[in-house]
């Protein structure tokens, strides 16, 4: 049962509408925001100016774009999971392969995010849905290691600040949030269920500075805040039916949404939404690999 919370005002903060906006990331290098549109295979970047997202750039990356992660250094661009691969997207829009053929044939990259040790974690999905996908970590040298198999639709993930706990969503078949202990070398242990998510499909997820989990619930028109023990702390009702993912830009909860598959979308469906909350978050953990333009001789495996 959710606790009593202050009334929330949900604002549309983007002028543009997207078919399936996903994977918002707060960029700690310049304070900007990045997100993707899965339907167009594009990586978008913008700045928050007086509560509104002002677009800066859009780059077509690939047919099946999954998730972006900033590199550590200012101006070093972004690493992006796309199709079955992992690529670098420069600030000038240049797309350069880093590692190819990570995901199995017939599957493609979906959501992901960084950990405090500079690794990029990303999972895959396939059509039709079947439990033959996986979750990987990609280290700063570009080597991909499969961490979890038997995945159906790899979606939200969030690490505790120390990186010792991974919270993870494989949307199907159980519609639940899970947790793992993470060893220093990245091995996952002690898999357990945090809670089941009812009334919709759990999608993207982020963690706030109190260690609470914010989850976008597709087809429920809600974002929910859960404790690490699985208690439902708050539900925010949205004007959009299909929220896809969330990011905390300080104390602004940014929510990406989709209009895909809706016969009568509203003005909020496909928009970026914003909600002020009391507990903020931190910028996205970066991938600590090298930009190809910085070190062309780096060996990726």
Automatic annotation (TrEMBL):
Protein name: Sugar lactone lactonase YvrE
All residue ranges annotated as the SMP-30/Gluconolactonase/LRE-like region domain in the record: 21-258
Pfam families reported in the protein's UniProt record: SGL
Highest taxon listed in the record's lineage: Bacteria
InterPro entries for the chain: 6-blade_b-propeller_TolB-like (IPR011042), SGL (IPR013658), SMP-30 (IPR005511)
Biological source species: Microbacterium murale
Family note: Belongs to the SMP-30/CGR1 family.
């Amino acid at each position: 049962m959710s606790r009593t919370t202050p009334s929330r005002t949900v604002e549309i903060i983007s002028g543009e509408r997207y078919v399936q906006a996903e994977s918002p990331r707060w960029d700690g290098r310049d304070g900007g925001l990045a997100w993707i549109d899965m339907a167009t295979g594009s990586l978008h970047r913008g700045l928050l100016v007086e509560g509104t997202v002002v677009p800066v750039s859009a780059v077509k990356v690939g047919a099946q774009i999954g998730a972006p992660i900033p590199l550590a250094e200012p101006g070093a661009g972004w690493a992006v999971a796309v199709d079955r691969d992992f690529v670098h997207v420069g600030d000038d829009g240049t797309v350069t392969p880093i590692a190819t053929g990570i995901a199995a044939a017939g599957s493609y990259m979906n959501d992901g995010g960084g950990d405090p040790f500079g690794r990029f974690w990303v999972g895959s999905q396939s059509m039709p849905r079947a439990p033959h996908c996986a979750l990987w970590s990609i280290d700063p040298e570009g080597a991909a290691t499969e961490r979890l198999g038997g995945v159906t639709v790899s979606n939200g993930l969030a690490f505790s600040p120390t990186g010792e706990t991974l919270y993870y969503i494989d949307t199907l078949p159980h519609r639940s949030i899970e947790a793992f202990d993470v060893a220093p070398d990245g091995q996952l242990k002690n898999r357990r269920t945090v809670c089941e998510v009812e009334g919709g499909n759990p999608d993207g997820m982020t963690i706030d500075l109190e260690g609470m989990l914010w989850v976008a619930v597709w087809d429920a028109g809600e974002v929910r805040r859960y404790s690490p023990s699985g208690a439902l702390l708050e539900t925010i009702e949205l004007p959009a039916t299909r929220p896809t993912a969330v990011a905390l830009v300080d104390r602004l909860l940014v929510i990406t949404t989709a209009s895909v598959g809706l016969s009568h979308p509203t003005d909020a469906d496909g928009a970026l939404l914003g909600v002020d909350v009391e507990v903020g978050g931190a910028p996205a953990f970066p991938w600590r690999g090298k930009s190809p333009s910085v070190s062309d001789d780096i060996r990726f495996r």
